[in-house]
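TA notes, week 10

Several of you asked for a full example with nothing omitted. So below is the full record: structure tokens for the whole chain, then the designed sequence directly under it. When grading your own attempts, check the secondary structure regions first.
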């Protein structure tokens, strides 16, 4: 390719001024340099670009075609330069983010309004297509920030803890688990598990609950739709493990029950991951602060009360004690029956 932006700028300037001399002045070069470069361009293209009419330089049809192209290309270059300059001065542009679990999209979109108000020059795009492999997308430059529940051990990443949510066993109200304070991993392994994942290795319940206890699930169905899982539990076709906030309406309606896993509960840590080589950004810091302060509060609202088990409390003959609200960085936990 012979033509570059310098050639296009020269041709456009000669056409605009209709004079080699004036074009040379505007380009801050000598008249002979403009004449020499113009002849070189014409020789390379094999066509005259200008006709001399007295002291005027008039573009030929080939010249007009090149001038129109120059106007488009130079406008694009000018716009790109301005955009890059704005990025350098203030930041801005498209910011791509995704979560490692589809349930995260329940609470992520509502938080973006705060970010948009504070940084209107940024367009935050939720890149759902990278949900299954967010870290690979980061390394490939297809993502700017990933919200994950599996912390990578890789020096190429910078990891920021965000918050925790509690994972509980979700069962039909008549299921034997519903009357218990908690279940064990071995109890869970004996049930038909409805997993919100595409494989056993991708399942939090299998990877972080069952396998550390040395057990594998007896029967598994992979169902990557929360509503479908709830309907299957209502039909007593199995049990699942989900964060309690993700099914708060079903818990509040009493159509399913949440049971803690082990007396202490099982929690999932969410973290924000960016490339370690990325430059510090006020926008990213604000985005992370919004996630830390608000993300747990949105999904956790109402989850605690919905997880109580009236039958278990009645059996003990006394109401459950109240506990203070959870700290901002931790999603509301289940309260065991007393």
């Amino acid at each position: 390719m012979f033509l570059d932006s310098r050639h296009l700028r020269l041709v456009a300037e000669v056409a605009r001024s209709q004079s080699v001399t004036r074009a040379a002045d505007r380009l801050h070069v000598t008249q002979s340099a403009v004449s020499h470069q113009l002849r070189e361009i014409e020789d390379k293209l094999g066509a005259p670009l200008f006709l001399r009419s007295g002291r005027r330089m008039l573009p030929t049809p080939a010249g007009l075609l090149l001038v129109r192209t120059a106007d488009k290309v130079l406008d694009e270059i000018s716009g790109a330069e301005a955009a890059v300059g704005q990025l350098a001065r203030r930041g801005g542009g498209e910011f791509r983010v995704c979560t490692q679990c589809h349930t995260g999209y329940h609470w992520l979109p509502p938080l973006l309004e705060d970010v948009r108000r504070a940084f209107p020059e940024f367009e935050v795009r939720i890149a759902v297509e990278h949900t299954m492999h967010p870290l690979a997308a980061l390394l490939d430059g297809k993502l700017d920030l990933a919200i994950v529940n599996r912390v990578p051990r890789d020096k190429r990443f910078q990891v920021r803890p965000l918050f925790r949510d509690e994972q509980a066993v979700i069962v039909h109200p008549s299921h034997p688990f519903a009357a218990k304070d908690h279940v064990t991993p071995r109890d869970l392994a004996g049930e038909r598990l409805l997993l919100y994942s595409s494989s056993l290795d991708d399942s939090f319940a299998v990877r972080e609950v069952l396998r550390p206890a040395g057990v594998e699930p007896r029967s598994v169905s992979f169902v990557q739709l929360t509503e479908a899982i709830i309907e299957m539990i209502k039909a007593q076709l199995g049990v699942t493990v989900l964060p309690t906030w993700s099914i708060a309406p079903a818990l509040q309606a009493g159509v399913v029950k949440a049971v803690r896993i082990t007396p202490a509960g099982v929690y999932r840590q969410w973290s924000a991951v960016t490339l370690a080589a990325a430059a510090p950004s006020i926008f990213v810091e604000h985005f992370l602060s919004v996630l830390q302060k608000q993300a747990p509060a949105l999904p956790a609202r109402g989850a605690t009360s919905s997880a109580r088990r009236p039958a278990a409390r009645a059996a003990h003959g006394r109401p459950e004690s109240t506990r203070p609200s959870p700290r901002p960085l931790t999603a509301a936990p289940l309260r065991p029956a007393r």
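Residues 298-338 have pLDDT under 50 and may be disordered. Use that as a sanity check on your answer.
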